[in-house]
C-alpha cells in the first residue's frame, strides 16, 4: 500500500484546511483509513478514521466537532477536513491504513506539514 498525503500549509488560527491522501491500494474499498499527527517533541497521535461505509467515522476528543474524515472510493482518496484550527493543531499529519478499528495503523504515508499561526 502506498499513500501520498497533500494539502498541508500555513493557516491562521480559526481557519480551515483540507488534507488529501491518495492510495494506491487496488482493494481500497476494503480498507479502513485514518489520520494521525505528530507535533514537535511529542508522540504520534490518532486524529480520525473513516470506515468502509460512507459516514462511518471516528475522531479523537481533541478534534471532535472540528475535524471530519471522509473517503471517495471511486478516486481512492481519503480526506481530512479541518476547521476552527488552533495553534496546538500544528503538526505533521499522516494518513494510514487502519488494521484494527478505529486507530491501529498498519501502512503509513509520508506526512504533510500543517502550521497554524496565532
Describe this structure in words.
The protein is mainly beta. It has strands spanning 3-6, 9-12, 17-23, 32-38, 45-50, 57-59, 67-72, 77-82, 91-100, 104-108, 112-117. The strands form two sheets. Strands 2, 4, 5, 6, 9, 10 and 11 form a seven-stranded mixed β-sheet that branches. It is globular. It starts with a strand and ends with a strand. The model has no long low-confidence stretch (mean pLDDT 95).
Q: Top keywords for this entry?
A:
globular; mainly beta; seven-stranded mixed β-sheet; 118 residues; four-stranded antiparallel β-sheet
Short description:
Helices cover about 0% and strands about 55% of the residues. The chain has about 120 residues and is mainly β.
What share of the residues lie within helices? under 10%
Question: Total strand count, please?
Answer: 11
Instruction: Please work out how many helical segments DSSP would assign.
Output: 0
Large-scale geometry: globular
Average the pLDDT over all residues and give the rounded result: 95
The helix-and-strand class reads mainly beta
Contiguous runs where pLDDT drops below 50 for at least 5 residues: none
For the biggest sheet, the summary is:
7 strands, mixed
Q: What is the gyration radius calculated from CA atoms?
A: 13 Å
SSE succession: EEEEEEEEEEE
Can you lay out the helices and strands and say which pair or pack?
Layout: E1 3-6, E2 9-12, E3 17-23, E4 32-38, E5 45-50, E6 57-59, E7 67-72, E8 77-82, E9 91-100, E10 104-108, E11 112-117
Parallel strand pairs: 2-11
Antiparallel strand pairs: 1-3, 3-8, 4-5, 4-9, 5-6, 7-8, 9-10, 9-11
Amino acid at each position: 500500500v502506498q499513500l501520498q498525503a497533500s494539502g498541508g500549509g500555513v493557516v491562521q488560527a480559526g481557519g480551515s484546511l483540507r488534507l488529501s491522501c491518495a492510495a494506491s491500494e487496488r482493494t481500497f474499498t476494503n480498507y479502513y483509513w485514518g489520520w494521525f499527527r505528530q507535533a514537535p517533541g511529542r508522540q504520534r497521535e490518532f486524529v480520525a478514521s473513516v470506515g468502509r461505509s460512507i459516514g462511518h467515522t471516528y475522531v479523537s476528543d481533541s478534534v471532535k466537532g472540528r475535524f471530519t474524515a471522509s473517503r471517495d472510493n471511486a478516486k481512492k482518496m481519503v480526506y481530512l477536513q479541518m476547521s476552527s484550527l488552533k495553534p496546538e493543531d500544528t503538526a505533521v499529519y499522516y494518513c494510514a491504513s487502519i488494521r484494527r478499528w478505529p486507530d491501529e495503523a498498519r501502512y503509513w504515508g509520508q506526512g504533510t506539514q500543517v502550521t497554524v499561526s496565532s
